[in-house]
UniProtKB/TrEMBL annotation:
Stated name of the protein: Thioredoxin-like protein
Keyword Cell inner membrane recorded: no
Keyword Metal-binding: yes
Similarity comment: family membership: Belongs to the SCO1/2 family.
Ranges for domain Thioredoxin: 40-214
MF terms in GO: copper chaperone activity; copper ion binding
GO CC aspect terms: mitochondrial inner membrane
GO biological process: intracellular copper ion homeostasis; mitochondrial respiratory chain complex IV assembly
Positions with a binding annotation for Cu cation: C78, C82, H172
Amino acid sequence: FNWKSSALFVLTGAGLFWYFRNEKAKVEQARQERFAPKSYGKPKLGGPFELVDQQGQVRTDRDFLGKFTLVYFGFTHCPDICPEELDKMAEVVDALGKCTHGSCDKVVPIFITCDPQRDTVERVRDYVKEFHPKMVGLTGTHEQVGQAARAYRVYYSKPPKVSNGEDYLVDHSIFFYLMDPRGQLVDFYGKDYSAEYVVNSVQQYMRDYEATAAATATTNSE
Ligand SMILES: [Cu+2]
């Protein structure tokens, strides 16, 4: 029996215990903060918009409350990046649909045009159905689209001089925004993220969101 080594053993045990408890608390705190009603240090993204879907129905941000959404801004004439990103979004939605966990199949893919001049309701309807049957395609007036882009702090620009019928490209930012059921930004994914990465990340957020919601419900009922 060695006092020194047993003291060290006890200390190490206590240290590990403290370390893990502390780590667990940190993880818990991060989870709480992410889904806390008021979260700081996160860009205030999303928010009021009013657009028209591919069925010609007026849709606002409030229509999507209660669901996770993936929001992407682009334009239907985009030669390569938008189709690639929207294919990826469809892949993500399908993978989430296969998962057995609670709200996975409830994620709504949303495409918002930043080229309202050419992207009519009909054009958007034909476009989104190429990607996913659940995809919501939104367009609107220049003002409505401008307002939605501002809400998401999406940058886009059309060349200044375009004559009628001339083809043009719209420069735009390329992100999927993951919004939670309260319409708040959870995360965003750039072009370099694989579908697999996005799926895992979204699933993690969904589990966290549900755990937080369950914890809040328990606290409230006590
Ligand atoms: Cu594009």
